[in-house]
Amino acid sequence: MITVVSSATVFGTARAALHLAPGNNADPAYWIASLRRLAGYHCPCSPRTLIASIVESHRNLVVIDETFIEQLEGLIEVLVAAGDLLELSDVTTLDETVKATWLFAAPPTFVVHPSGAAFLIGLASDDPLPLPAELLERVATRRAIRTIAPLVGEDLPLLLEGIGFRQLSLESWLKHPKKEDAATHLGSMDARLGHRSQATDTTDMRILDWTLETRRYRDRWRAPLRQTGSFLLRRPQAYGADLWSYGRFNVGQLEALIDFPLPGGRWRGCDIAWRVQLAIDALAGRPQRYRKQLRDEFAHFDFFFPLPSWARRRLGVVGEELSPEGCLMSFRVPVSEAQAEQAFLRDYLYFESDE
Amino acid sequence: LADTLDGWQKRLEAHFAAMAATRRAKGLPVFAIEHGLDSTERITIAKLLNRSLGVEAPGQYWLVWIVYAAEQGYDYDGDEYWTTFERRTPEWRHLVDRRSLRRWFGRFHEKYAGLKPTGPWASWFSIIAWPITHALLPRDLQSQLARSLYQWRYQLAKMLGDDPGKIGRFLASMSDDAPSRFRNFLEQEEIAGRIVLALLGNRAEAAEQFVLPVTLERIVADLQKANAARAWLRDARQAAERFQLRGTSRHIQGTTDNGTAPRTAAASHPYIRPALTLRRMAPGVWNPWAELPTLRPIADLSPDLSTFLRRTRCTVAGSPGLLPAGWLMLGDQRRVLGFWPPSDRPIVQFSEPPPMLEQLLRVDGCITPGPIWLFRVGTDGLAREVIGRMVRPGQSYVLVSETAIAHGPGLTPVTLMATGVNAVGIDLPPHLPEDTILALRALGLGVGQSIRIAPAGLEARRWDGEGFAEWMEGENPCLTLEADHSIETYAVRLDGGPTLQVPANGGSPIFLKLTDLEVGRHTFSVEVRSQIGGASTAATGYIAMAIRPPQPWIAGTTSHSGLAITADPPEPSLDQFWKGEVSVQVLGPAHQPVRICVELLNATGGVLATEQVASLPLPITSETWSRALAAFLKKEPDPWAYLSAASGRLVIDGEASGSWRLPLQRDVAPVRWLWHRGANRTALRLVDDHEGDEPLFAQFFPFAQPDIPLALNPKELEGDFCPNGQGGLCIAYYGEKSEALVVSMPQTIGSLSELIVEPKIGINGAAENPVEKLSTMLGLWKDAKLVGPLVTQRLDAVLSAFQHSLVALVYGSDWAIAEARYLRSPKAQNDLKGLTARTGAPPAFGFVIARDIEKFRSMPLSKRIVEFDALARRYIRVPRDATASAFEVCTWLTQGRPWTERFAVHLRILQTAPELLRAARVLSIATAIAEPIPAQVEKGRR
Predict the structure, then answer these.
(1) Do residues B101 and B130 touch, judged by C-beta distance below 8 A?
(2) Do the Cβ atoms of A116 and A149 come closer than 8 Å?
(3) What percent of chain B lies above the pLDDT cut of 70?
(4) What's the confidence (pLDDT) of residue A246?
(5) Which end of chain B is more exposed for a tag (fewer CB within 10 A), N or C?
(6) Are strands B348-350 and B372-377 parallel, antiparallel or unpaired?
């Protein structure tokens, strides 16, 4: 049957198909569910393919502008940090001869939280959470985090494994790089840079210009002009998403370059790059700062610079991630944990508090 | 009477007689588990039967005994049936012949319409097949069945009106990787299908007629004790109910279907259309790839197609090389194209496909017909094909053509990294001048006034940007309509339904919602008429839509995960794996470590042992895999679990990137050897479940004298048996069937020399048919399973000894010595000359062979025979067909093929031309050096 409908009904119909609460608008939960659904059949693909697909089917429903694209990019990051999407580098999958960095849909997996609840991660092609209805009804969703709590006397890991989900240990899921001060970390990157041969082609490149005085992360990206020093940069590659790199410039000329992730490394290119930038900022005497506020027995942390996925996961496990308001990322952790997390952010990512 | 077996016998007789009368009328069988006894009564009869053993003749209470036996089948834990039975009935073994049980069940079949088990498993296990089948759905299979019902709930929901046998066949065809006990259960297709019908709550009356309600309740109650099984069953039942409700509502609305199943729109036409995509490599450089939908929907059409697709390799036109069997069963695939594929043949090609597959591929498996292909460039750097070849202002395209494309306004040359076609880029401004429109039309492209139909809100799967979209069953697609010119009304239509007139919204997009779409293909079309300058013009647009049921998620598959894995052969056995004959290739993120394990499983799928094969960084090529597997097999994993395993599973675990499981099947033979680990020692045990009328024999051939059998008493082998010394070949056989195991015993070694075996072959030329005997013995040793430390090395020594004796018998003892000397030599030209001198042929013949050895090496076998025959005839007398016979004998001996009467004929022909036979052997040995070593040789033990 064909019916003429309003745009509100279009949203309502899509929300019903995505198993979301009834409504006639697009909230972050709607975009997260849409991205998961798209990932089920587009992955492996670049993030841009997921975004293009959403844009295509919402052209007449929402305003498509830079803010909207930024929102989608941010939500893809949220899904990567939550573990539903994996960004894998140097992958040979399309063809034996072609390597690329792509987003993959993580297979259905779970991680048991110390509280006994299980984080549900990953998705299947036609089903963003392939659980029988009886379990599905018990799943709690907070942004991109899906959890299920055990019933009294229930062996939840055994049950989930019986259904086919794989268990990943909390330790393995939260694994992070070793502790290094900013100077040592940057020194090791610069040493790698020194050994690389000269590269000059800067076509389509963008650098993260740390010389600019702005708190807005996105505004720091620009084409290389006459900068001198070492900068993070992004450059297009044949297959998949743009590469993250670190390069040395001399009056806008690229002198040396290394691509992230480093060979054999387990961290994503952007995770390495962001840590490098945080080290650069710290050594330049302008460390990145976060806003900390105490409310309702929780310490709220607002970040204006992206956190690597390993740090994001940790804060999400210790506390919970919130919808950001006037910042890039927002978390709250119990007050009793706040000090330890502040130390973690300082020791591993060179952050300072606004306090 | 309730306290006597006599009373129970009579009660059961009455019960089953009444059931048989009802069931016979409907052609349905009775099961011993349908006894209707509650748990207290079952405990009572178990006690009474145990007490009666040795006191009363068991045959008097045969019906009570088969009920008891079926209960053991229902309860048993997947260990050996008799182990469980005899543990619960300790005196049985000494006082009752197991075959009595088969007789009693036979009587049950005749007297009370009891089901007679059929199928390969039932014929192999002719006694235990009865109680296990009569347990209907044993406890340990319930969870497995619930999982299958859940996994295939959408397909099964549609089959509820079908013949039960078809449902059983469907489940069997989808359960290749299930535990062996479950596969055995599914061999009773009709019964399995009826149980499915009963569990899904369909046709309650029919279910009641098939299973006694109290028995069904018991099974469902047991099944629901496991949380996962309860949840699976609930979802499967809901899917069935939803489908039936929909079928009913359509029927009430007066559709033309027959009421057994809802009508589907071309539902039997699976979606397999390939899509072409271009990816920007650099400015102006594009690389094409083919996106190939999985062929699983075709496999779901029939078990035969499923088997073919799982086991057959394929090629993709435009891309070099053969792809592994089952490649398109793993999920959608992509392939980079080095040359443009032809549009008149399917892009995926199989050798000798079944007619139905061939037809489906011919109709839907080809790329869009040429001679031009249009691709719209997206913001993600991909250009997707526009099937309708319609361009729109403000967009960018890549046009691919079989012929050269003339340059024109707005066209820029681009490089396509595939041969056979040309390509140009098209960047269209927001407003198209008339000359551009004309130029585009001249290229064969549609342009101008048009309607745009696109998915709105919920994204479509496989949306190509213009003309094709796919949604899942139950989804209500929304579409947006836009026209790039002024119109008054849209006339919209779905398939052949009524036309709906939709007023235009003053240039704003219109949203439409489509509901109640059935599974299958649909066409949504739009037509508009407008007046331009007094002339009436029409524009039409359409999209083809496919609605399909969701594909169930199957744990352990690689679709969409970060690992791309292929295995060869696609369905290996556990024994093939253990002999190093399984090749695996894993692609994924470079350097990421993956852990590879083999899990050994019991008959119910429980893990007996897990052995780590290797931990390797990606990618794993077939070479790195071969080395890792060979190293693993040398380590001598736990023989106890290997021998006891009913099946296995190769697990490739990439942690967050996913894991993948390859089932390793094994046919569990009724007679089999187990490795038993006792408190102080390890020993062999023979399990005998064949219990047919053919007597069982057992023999042991020690490594030291591998052709001299020592007779063993099969009864004694049911206890512990420790082969003497270093071990050897243990073989048990009855009728035509045999089960052989080479066991190398763990020993406390006094010196290194004790590690080595020096086999002495006793059979010589004086024996009757010595060549046949040696060849048969060689085959027995070669095909046996292997266990124990140093077994490979010791087996190799035995095989070499047999080979040497065979060479001596066929070519002569002096030749065997000369050949052994040559094989130990550096194999230089002089060594070869020395060997040719021993052929007995004129020296000139030997000289020419040695001189031309390189030439012979490069020839295919057929040509080599012709050339060799021509050469031989110049120097020696060559009987008719003798040359071909000589080469065939060489191949048989080199490859250790089984003996047949054909070789006896060859040897008779060659008796008069020994020099020819030896000269052919020279070529066989010498050419073997240069020929590529067969892949298997390097892969593992052999």
Answers:
(1) yes
(2) yes
(3) 89
(4) 92
(5) N
(6) unpaired
Cβ pair A17:B588 closer than 8 A: no
Cβ neighbours of A252 (radius 10 Å): 13
Q: What DSSP character marks residue B753?
A: G
Mention every residue, 6+ apart, whose C-beta is less than 8 A from residue B811.
B819, B914, B917, B918, B921
CB B383 within 8 A of CB B414: no
CA distances from A16 to A143, B67, B699, B754, B934 (A): 18, 52, 69, 75, 58
B198 vs B392: CA distance, rounded Å: 57
**CB neighbours (10 Å) of residue A131?**
24
Query: Percentage helix, strand, coil, to 5, in chain A?
Result: 35, 25, 35
A231 three-class SS: strand
Collapse the DSSP code of B279 into the 3-class scheme (helix H, G, I; strand E, B; otherwise coil) and give the result.
Answer: strand
Residue B798 is classified by DSSP as: H
If 0-12 CB within 10 Å is exposed, 13-18 middle and 19+ buried, where does residue B547 land? buried
C-alpha–C-alpha distance, residues B635 and B546, integer Å: 53
Q: ipTM of the predicted structure? A: 0.83
Q: Amino acid letter at B670?
A: P
B431: distance to nearest CA of chain A, Å?
20
Task: Write phi, then psi, for B390 (nearest 5 degrees).
Answer: -105, 125
Q: What is the dihedral of CA A103, A107, A112, A116, to 10 degrees?
A: 120
Cβ-based neighbours of A20, under 8 Å, separated by 6 or more:
A29, A30, A33
* Other Cβ atoms closer than 10 A to A95: 19
Identify whether the C-beta of residue A125 lies closer than 8 Å to the C-beta of residue A87: no
| DSSP3 helix / strand / coil % (chain B, rounded to 5) | 40, 25, 35
Contact between residue A144 and residue A27 where contact means Cβ atoms under 8 Å apart:
no
On whether any CB of chain A is under 8 Å from the CB of B297, the answer is no
Contact criterion met (CB below 8 Å) for B129 and B117? yes
Question: What phi and psi values does residue B882 have, to the nearest 5 degrees?
Answer: -70, -35
Burial A313-351 (b: 16+ CB within 10 A, else e): bbbbbbbbbbebeeebbbbbbeeeebeebbebbeebbbb
The answer to whether residues B789 and B895 touch, using CB atoms and an 8 Å cutoff, is no
Instruction: Kindly list the strands in the beta sheet with B535-548, ordered across the sheet, starting from the edge strand earlier in the chain.
Output: B468-472, B535-548, B520-532, B489-494, B500-503
Residue type, B626: S
**B890 φ/ψ sector (left φ>0, alpha ψ -120 to 50, else beta):** alpha
d(CA B348, CA B726): 53
Do residues B78 and B604 touch, judged by C-beta distance below 8 A? yes
CB within 8 Å of B664: residues ≥ 6 apart? B572, B573, B574, B576, B577, B582, B598, B647, B648, B649, B650
Chain A (117-136) residues lying within 8 Å, Cβ to Cβ, of chain B: 124-127, 130-135
CA distance A326 to B310: 54
Cα Rg of chain A, angstroms: 21
How is residue A86 written in tokens? 């994996």
Residue of B nearest to A60 (CA): B509
Model confidence pLDDT, tens digit, residues A122-146: 998 888 999 998 899 999 988 888 9
Backbone angles phi, psi at B100, to 5 degrees: -60, -40
Are A278 and A311 in contact by the 8 Å Cβ rule? The answer is: no
Given an 8 Å threshold on Cβ–Cβ distance, is B587 in contact with A96?
Answer: yes
Instruction: Check: CB of residue B455 under 8 Å from CB of residue A34.
Output: no
Q: Is B454–A61 a contact, with Cβ atoms under 8 angstroms apart?
A: no
Q: Are the beta carbons of B553 and A168 separated by less than 8 Å?
A: no
Could you tell me the pTM of the whole model? 0.73
Please state which of the ranges A154-158, A272-276, B572-576 shows the lowest mean pLDDT.
B572-576
User: Which 8-state DSSP code applies to residue B58?
Assistant: G
User: What pLDDT digit, counting tens, does each position of A196-206 carry?
Assistant: 555 666 777 88
Q: Touching check for B287 and chain A: CB below 8 Å? A: yes
Positive or negative: CA dihedral A50, A53, A55, A61: negative
